Amino acid sequence: MTSSDERQPTRRRRLFWLAAFVVVLFAVYSGGWFYLANRVRSEADKTVAALNANGVEAGCANLQVGGYPFSFAVSCDTLAYEDDAKNIAASAGSFKAVAPIIQPWSPVANLRGPLRTSIPGMVPLWIDWDDLRANVNLSWPLPHRVTLRAEGLSGQTDPADETDPVQLFSAGKAAGQLQPNGPDLDYLGSFIDLEIDPEAIGGRVLPAFDATGDATLKNGVALIGTHVQSLRGQALDIRNLDLSSGTARVTVSGPLSVDADGFIDADLMIRIKDPKAVAAILGAAIPERKSEIAQGFAALSLLGNEPSMPLQVSKGRASLGFIPLGKIKPVD
User: Fold this and answer.
1) pTM of the predicted model, to two decimals?
2) Looking at the 3D structure of the chain, how many domains does it have?
3) Which of 64, 128, 156, 172 could cross-link 113 (Cys pair, CB 3.0–4.6 Å)?
4) What is the dihedral of CA 139, 142, 143, 147, to 10 degrees?
């Protein structure tokens, strides 16, 4: 027998054991996948049952778990939440979250609109979008990061509750990111081509503008689980809030808080680009102060095209440097 003849059975045995190993590995993997899929279904059912036992009606209609073999995909035809005791309700369209097997802690979720909400003290809302995507970096006890991106975002009062629904806002694109930072909650966000309808702000007129924000909500992590229904007693540290429309730009930074009576207190620094353009926008938005705003910004223009000045708010009374802006009503 030649050496080549002796090597043939050895190769066959190796191929056999390799194939057997692959089959066993695939069988173990498949068993694990379907086990986890059943756990996802059972945990979802338990969560819904626990909510319903506490007087809440929550639902994920037609819950499906798929994606085998390379991912986990959880989907529902509709999402709904209703708490009669607190008079809170929300519903949305289909939901789908997909996590690849190689990155199970980083699912990507898509939600179809509209989102309909009913909250005490607010008119029922109808918020819709062309595309809404969420990226989540899961960790315990809270996600490490949650990022939302939307295109074609718009909001109005719910047509089911209004004979003539009021348009509230629209934005070409919007993005937001939430991330725990110790006991606080960091926020990064932006809007592109944001328009606020005059009907939503008492007939006042604002141009379309872009906005970016970077802020920290104090004690924000604890507030997540307490179902806060009021802004009173809350505090915010604004690292950067930038609003721009055409050549006009306003950048804000500093602390802001709401006291127990709902009055806003703030010690902010305002940087203004093109004061005359900003004055024109403010004059249209606050027509009752148009004359004072025009005079104040005319003097401000003497400091250059990009001056800085403090914005002080004390018990709701606001002033931009030496320019009085009026009184802000207490918030709820």
Assistant:
1) 0.77
2) 1
3) 128
4) -170
